[in-house]
Amino acid sequence: MVAALLLIAGTLNEISKATCFSFTGRVVCRVETAEPLVALTFDDGPTTVGVESVLPALKRYNAKATFFLVGASTEIALTRRIVAEGHEVGNHSFTHQRMVGHPKAFYDDELRRTDAALVSAGAPKPTLFRPPYGKKLFGLPIAVARNGQTMVMWDSGDAPDRYPKAYAAEVLADVRPGSIVLIHPMFRSRETERQALPLILEGLTRRGYRLVTVSELLRAGRA
Ligand SMILES: [Zn+2]
């Protein structure tokens, strides 16, 4: 009996981390398209060190990207800069907790407060949500759908190598048309990701990819 319960708990834990599957709602981990489009996504923050490193790199390659920002960390000036350069801003929860096993009101509150923080910082109301730690099970996907948002996971970029060149090479090996790449550039400790970004941008551009927001990728996928 105990073994069976542990097996069920373990299985649910694995499913909660699945990047392309959810019992409820809709989860997007990549988009079916023949066009050479890739969406880079940046999680957490915003922080000054992250934004000041990422924005100039994107601009140099004429790339548009999607930033999944945390409501409680939404610094107005940084958010405005991201939006002003034509990037998309998505909801990454308000308090960045594991969003599994909470009551309905908790999810609704996390989503609503973050939307409000981002809108008051000058962003359009987000249509995309990314779960903290990629964790979701039953209640969160339903709340995200109820809030009119699409849950966006990724198919590339997770678990970076310690070395920027190796990390960039991993991403470039994984990416195909329609890929969604997850990058964590915001925290001070994430120097590897920040140094890898220009290498990723250079490699993707050289392979003929155009770098677009997740919403643009979703539109291309439907066409
Ligand atoms: Zn996060």
TrEMBL record:
One of its GO terms (biological process) is carbohydrate metabolic process. Pfam families: Polysacc_deac_1 (PF01522). Residues 36-212 form the NodB homology domain. GO terms for molecular function: hydrolase activity, acting on carbon-nitrogen (but not peptide) bonds. InterPro entries: Glyco_hydro/deAcase_b/a-brl (IPR011330), NODB_dom (IPR002509), Polysacc_deacetylase_ArnD (IPR050248). Belongs to the polysaccharide deacetylase family. Is involved in generating a small heat-stable compound (Nod), an acylated oligomer of N-acetylglucosamine, that stimulates mitosis in various plant protoplasts. This is Chitooligosaccharide deacetylase.
